[in-house]
Amino acid sequence: MRKNYFIVILLFFAFLTNAQITIQGVPRNDVKSKTVTQKQVTAKSANSTTFSDIQFWVGSGVNQAAFVVQWNDGKTSDALVWGFKWDGTATGEDMIKAIAKADPRFFALLRQGTQYGSAIGGFGFDLNGTGTNGLYKDGNKMYPYYPFDGLINTSEYDFDSYTGIDADDHWQSGWMVGYWSYWVKDPVDEGYNYSGVGASTRELQNGSWDVWNFNPNMEMFDIATTFTPVAPYSKTIDFSKGYFIVNEDWFGHVNGSVNFVDNNGNINYRVYSEANNNNSFGATTQYGTIYGDKFYFVSKQAKDGGDTQYIAGGRLVVADALTMKKIASFDDIGGGDGRSFIGVDEKTGYIGASNGIFLFDIANMKVGSMVPGTGGGSQYLGQIGNMIRTSQYVFAVKQSTGILVIDPKTNTVVKTIAGAFHSVTQAKDGSVWGIQNQKLLNIDTLTFTTTEYPIPTTKYLGSWGAWNAGSFTYSNKENALYWNNNVSSYVSGAQIVRFDIATKTFNENFATLPGQTGTYKQIVYGAGLRIDPVSGNLIVNTTESGFGAHYQKNWVHTYNNTGQLIDTKTLNDYYWFPAMTVFPDNASPVLNSILPSQVSVVNPIIIDLKTVVSDEDNISAAIVKTIKSNSDENIVLAAINANEELVLTPKNNGTATVVISFNSNGKVVEKSILVNTSTLGRDEFTKVQLSIYPNPVSDYLNISSEDEVTDVVIYDVNGRTINTRINNNQIDVSNFAPGFYIINISTEKAKYTQKFIKR
């Protein structure tokens, strides 16, 4: 009797053992009480998809396997398939991680490091292409979870607690009320078999198929009869078409970042990190600027100690402006925290820091010594703010001191304009302006005298305590300045203010930010206002007032130059803390008026350089003019005076070539002038001023010359002569086809050749 009882007990435990379900290798007695049947552990029906159907392959090697995810959420396309290649040995987990890293649309929730290996808690896929990959846990929107290399990690079997940020994407996760069942098929198998082990233990074979099939509410779905191949991920971004948004990012969690908004309205996130294998900037990236072909990102600190995902880049990061590829990075920029950067010439830049201005060797990528006279004061009482480069000087704001005027030829401070300034900028006409709490000051660029213009009612209260570049800015299309009003040093107002430089009038209600109803309103953050140099549109970055999760709400608004809101973009929910917008520098300076290619000099002559060059996407008045070379100073002396005039002084009979360099924000063009002094003897002092305008031109091309114009011939790009007449030094080109033209102009004294563009 006792023997029979023992046999019954063994059979009972054998039954329990056979009935027990393992999910990814984890024994689950609790699953038996759910609506689970034997159907879950039987082979699935055959599938018509083959390896030749797979389009997106990850990895390399002689072995290949297929990876399928079937969400069973009613969204199409479901049951997506990728391919994986490798050499040697690989597991199902290796395949998941490789695909998640290679395809930014796909991400996974994992619990790693358990006694059973890694447990797969959830899979997601960006169906609508918005790039909104991320999770909320227990509905908590204050602290979202974002994938890194395609993975989000958890330390518990809390998979049921997660929901996708974007409800229109694929997302399924679970452990207790739904779970991912794991089905595998190796080359020797006729059909799919339920895997009794997890992805970490599953060893792939050449020709394996792994299918992850979600069971919502423990309801079983058959494996799909066909799988949808995932299209290869290809995202080539043209960084010349759109604009950048430099972000402080989430202090205490992640280093600084930069997003890019292309001309189609697509928002591309973390483009520097994407281009540089998860490298980032330093902590609290507050400034960015493009000079020449390089992008300079300045952060307050070298790294964020809370960032465990991205590789910190330091206080200064230099990248290629067209590819975002890293060129150099620096933790130490002179001992202080980063503030700003300005290009001085092709070889030198200035780094603004909390303890002064430091030279930067652009050619050799090296931080140099402090510019004398720019240091002094504590970190928050002597820091450097914004800097601008005019055609002759650098103007730099220094807290509690004023605006420092620096001669970039000698790197010395030549003047300090005392006052409590918040920012400085340069207008389209070349005039320099500083802003204080409730006044503008125009600074004469030669004498440095100031003229005050009180702001009628609103205030501009910059934030020196937690410095940002501020909203004080200019338009490259009209002679006007813009900024946002402030409620306090840390709270922006809702108004955009415009100052007309020609009329010296303020419009304190130029535009109002949207979202000004309710308890939590849209506010400008950081340097929230900048102006597109080509279109003239205003780009305004706003976030939501309040605290916590409110700062995850971010918008980009576009206004035209009449104050009309013409576009709004909503960023993915995240603590971006946008610092400033930066526009690409695509255009090079154009010699858009006629400079003589050769000139005869018998007495000193002057050629005005202020009007002979322009730049579509930079301030033309700020273009730096220098003598690059003079082939023979015994023949002629060449110099550029304070009025930006080229002075040619003959010395002896002969010829020499003088090369003039025009530097517009790091982009350089040159002009060679052959100087002939063989006819010395005249006593008069000659001043040569000859130019054509406007260029580009739509209707009438004007010729300005002190000498009488005797003949004009115009050629198209094919060398054909275009019949035309000159009337009072004006040519009607309204019927010309759009394109480039060459114009030969003869005067009583010389002949000139130049190009112009017909719109």
Automatic annotation (TrEMBL):
Residue ranges occupied by any Secretion system C-terminal sorting domain in the UniProt entry: 692-757
Keyword Ribonucleoprotein in record: no
Transmembrane spans: none
Signal peptide boundaries: 1-19
Matching Pfam families: DUF5074, Por_Secre_tail
Keywords annotated in UniProt: Signal
InterPro entries: DUF5074, Secre_tail, WD40/YVTN_repeat-like_dom_sf
SUPFAM superfamilies for the chain: Calcium-dependent phosphotriesterase (SSF63829)
Name of the protein: DUF5074 domain-containing protein
Provenance organism: Flavobacterium humidisoli
